[in-house]
Each structure stands twice: as C-alpha cells, then as structure tokens.
Specification:
alpha/beta, Rossmann fold, seven-stranded parallel β-sheet, two-stranded antiparallel ribbon, 9 strands, globular
Length: 269
C-alpha cells in the first residue's frame, strides 16, 4: 500500500467549516495530514474535526474570525503549541461582497479586504516565522477566477482577490530560496454556501468543492505556482489576455456574472 503523500504533516486551513475549506481539510486528512481547522461556526467546525478523527488523523478545531488579528495569532500559537510546526498553510476564508459600481461605497471594499485579503495576510505574517526557521513549508492562497478576469458587480471582491494574487506572486519568488513554496488557486464558480443564491449560466456551472480540494492537494504535491479550476476556465483567461475587449464581450454574452436569485424573485413578485 503506497505511503500517504502528507503522512503526519501538519496542515492549517481557514474557512474550514464548509465549502472549499471543509473539502480541503478532508482531502488533506485522507492524504495523511493532521489538521488545524479554523472558522467562526463552532458547531460546524467541531463536526468537520470529528470527520478528520474518523479518518484516523488528529484535528485541532480553533474558532477564529480572520478579520481579527488576535484571533489569527491565537490560532497559529495553538497549532504550533500542539504540533510544533506548520507544513501546509491554506488561506481559504473568504466573503463574497459585490455591488454595482454606481452604488459602491468605500465600506464595501473595507469589508471585502478585511476578510479576503487581510484575513490571509494575518495568517501568513503569524505563520511565516516558524516556516522560515525550519526553511520548509507550503502556503496556498485561495484567490478566485475573478482575479484573472473581473466580473461585473464584483468590484469589492475582485479588488481584494487581485490584491491576494499580487501578494502571492511576490511571495512565491522571494520565499523559494528559503524552501517555502507558494501556490495561488483560482477557482471558478463553486457550489458553496458563499454563492448559494447565485444562478450561473451552464457554461460556467458551479463545480463541487471537492474538485477544488483535489486541485489543491495536487498542487502541493507538485509544487505548482498557480492553479485554475476548472481547467476549461483557462480559455477565458487566454481570450482576455489576447484581447480585453474580447474577454469583456464573452462575459457580457454568456452573462458570467450570473443572476442574484433573491433579486430575480423580488422582481417577479
């Protein structure tokens, strides 16, 4: 029987109570890792931790609001106190905040950045010294396809995810000499509670969180710098790079931004 690829490695995953985070926690545990789980929902977090234990792996559930640096610092301290190291760090916690540009306010962006960018930055800053000391580790940043091609109505979300993408670009280059690898993941529409109210066109149908988790595991094993999932989403990136006008046209024609079911229902009433 082959040796699990992450046997007895220590992983820390934020946003772990549902969606991509939960799927990633279980995928890492199935690959042999012990996992520290962080999210705001205590009950759901405990449920996922119990699933990890049923897989024969250790789990540490730490209720965490990534918007609060003190919470993130406590999360990292407890993880290091329990296992002494962090081998795989997955900055996944996110919030989908959107508004039409004519109605946007600074507060929309502050809210988006607090979760989608600073939540990841706090985690990195708190965890990096231990990785640098060991000259070993792998950091996974969960960005979004919105950071490859911005979608209408998504300005606050897009801005924060683009910032995370840029941070990943620099970190990947600077940390490699220290033995630390960085992967930025760009998921398309994923079937998670984050966008359960959003209807999307068939051409960009929501994919299961497990698909993203598998891509994350594969990326860590192969030390891939960037991952776009699903793979066919690369076509939009290609066309947008070839011609931004063509990219805009494709978004407009296929209505890639989707339809808010709550708004559509209220309009019908």
């Amino acid at each position: 029987m082959p040796r699990p690829p992450f046997l007895d490695q220590i992983a820390l995953v934020t946003g772990a109570s549902s969606g991509i985070g939960r799927a990633t926690v279980l995928a890492l545990a199935q690959c042999g890792a012990h996992v520290a789980l962080a999210a705001r929902s205590v009950d759901k977090l405990d449920e996922v931790a119990e699933e990890v234990r049923r897989l024969g792996r250790q789990a540490l559930a730490v209720p965490t609001d990534v918007r609060r640096r003190a919470d993130v610092s406590r999360l990292v301290r407890q993880t290091l106190a329990t296992w002494g190291r962090i081998d795989i760090l997955v900055a996944n916690a996110g919030a989908y905040i959107r508004t039409p540009v004519p109605a946007m306010r600074v507060e929309h962006f502050e809210e988006s950045f607090q979760v989608n960018f600073y939540g990841a930055l706090y985690l990195i800053v708190e965890s990096l010294p231990a990785m640098l000391e060991r000259r070993q580790g792998h950091i996974v940043l969960i960005s979004s396809m919105d950071a490859q091609k911005g979608m209408p109505l998504d300005a606050p979300y897009v801005a924060a995810k683009y910032a995370l993408r840029g941070l990943g670009e620099v970190m990947r280059q600077e940390l490699r000499p220290y033995g630390i690898f960085v992967t930025t993941v760009f998921p398309g529409r994923v079937d998670t509670p984050l966008i359960d109210y959003l209807d999307v066109p068939r051409i960009s149908a929501k994919i299961p969180p497990a698909n993203v988790a598998k891509a994350i595991v594969r990326a860590v094993r192969r030390r891939q710098p960037e991952v776009i999932v699903p793979r066919y989403a690369k076509a939009l990136v290609y066309f947008n790079t070839l011609s931004p006008r063509l990219g805009d046209w494709l978004v407009r024609v296929f209505h890639f931004e989707g339809w808010d079911r709550r708004t559509r229902n209220s309009q019908r009433q």
